[in-house]
Amino acid sequence: MFTVTDAAKTQLVKNLEGSSAEAIRVALQKSGCSGYKYYIDFCDQVNDRVEILLESPIMVVADKEILPYLQNVTLDYIQDGINRMFKFSNPDAKAECGCGESFML
């Protein structure tokens, strides 16, 4: 199950305001020294290639082929001093690179 914290929901709503996108897309790309990294982007059109992960207060979707990589993942929005960012936590990751950018399952 993919989880979005209240802090992340609030920030995602702010990010989508003023955009023509229908939803926020959670995606996966090859990156870093450990293999993959999660990222978020705008989704201009929700279609049958995506799975809806969250409908309210904002629609969050992901391509169906990456759903196995989203099991037990939590998306949070953290503030540390003046730094603010979205953070993906995956307790099933077998390894992470030293900088925390990428992971391996």
From TrEMBL:
GO molecular function: 2 iron, 2 sulfur cluster binding
SUPFAM superfamilies on file: HesB-like domain
GO annotation terms (biological process): iron-sulfur cluster assembly
InterPro entries listed in its UniProt record: ATAP, ATAP_core_dom, Fe-S_cluster_asmbl/transfer, HesB-like_dom_sf
Domain Core: 2-101
Family: Belongs to the HesB/IscA family.
Protein name per its UniProtKB record: Iron-sulfur cluster assembly accessory protein
